[in-house]
Amino acid sequence: ISQGAEVRCCSTEIPHPLHYITAKGNEIIMKILLSRGLQPNVLDKHGETALHVAAREGFVNCCQLLLEYGAVYNHRSPKCPKTPLDFAMENGHTEVVTLLSMVGKYFKELKKKKFKKLETNMKFFCAVMNCCGNDGMSLMGRAVSLGLKDFAERLMKLRLQMAPSS
């Protein structure tokens, strides 16, 4: 990769590298792939994203990393009508359920324009800030499109407080 290898390619044996690495729970390789442009929302032959895989396996740090790189938190497809949250709940992965439920709560509250409290735990904030809903819009994008200036400003202030390496 450091020599310029194309990270978005695949093979017949491993058609979806991010799904494969996610299933192994390898956050280091995931971060390398995602930071080099691998898209987090690619669907495999089952209609699942890498976030579905991470949620099913209970890899909360992998889920968080995917969300930070713009994964759709509630993706459903005709081949896979379940969301990542559904998989986490079915398999009893409480940390993943907590993370994905929190993200879902923020999107729902924002849609109702009744946003109460914003997560200030920076570990989770970046995941919340960058992930997308089914419409492809981030929390910030949705706040701006709904004309929620105060909320958008709060998001930006928190984002500016984050360490540059986050």
UniProtKB/TrEMBL annotation:
ANK repeats lie at residues 17-45, 46-78. Keywords: ANK repeat, Repeat. GO terms for cellular component: nucleus. The keyword rRNA-binding does not apply. PROSITE patterns: ANK_REP_REGION (PS50297), ANK_REPEAT (PS50088). SUPFAM superfamilies: Ankyrin repeat. Pfam families: Ank_2. This is Uncharacterized protein. It comes from Homalodisca liturata.
